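User: I'm putting together notes for a lab meeting next week and I want to include a structural view of one of the chains we've been expressing. I don't have a solved structure, so I'd like a prediction I can at least talk through. The sequence is below, exactly as it appears in our construct file.
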Amino acid sequence: MLAPAPSAFANRPSPSIRRATRSIAASVTVLLLSSVGAAGAAEVYGDWRTPVDNGVIRIERCGESLCGRSLTSNGLKTHPDALDLQNHDPALRNRRLKDLLIMKLRAKGGNAWGDGWIYNPRDGGTYHASLNLEGSDTIKLTGCLAPLLCKTQSWKRVGG
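Assistant: Thanks for the context. Below is the predicted structure for the 160-residue chain, given as structure tokens.
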């Protein structure tokens, strides 16, 4: 008597093992994709020097957004208790400039943030803003009064 021919599916895992394998693979994929986004965000956090007045802005996470606070500048070194006197809203002119929240942006994917705003204490204006991390030590920040009226600055990482 001849033995039955081996089935092509004889070595195939059971349906429950296949489901478990797919579930693990999907979880690993999600984890890898989220860690790539988190790595970009983590790299942007820290202290950044602006090209104006030797300013330093601390970029940190605030909820699901990215926020920036003024730490120091030549003006703040001279007048550490300086107030937000140029603000267009008179009710806000008594705020101290040191540690003032000046920027809030949402993640756009990769190394880009946008759909937010930046406040300029030098003129009291608030502008639409976007930010791109370009390498580990440079960000390009763009502030716009209107879609075609924009200015871009390069900020360098402090100590970078």
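A couple of points you could mention at the meeting. The longest helix spans residues 15-44. The longest strand covers residues 101-109.

User: Perfect, that's what I needed.
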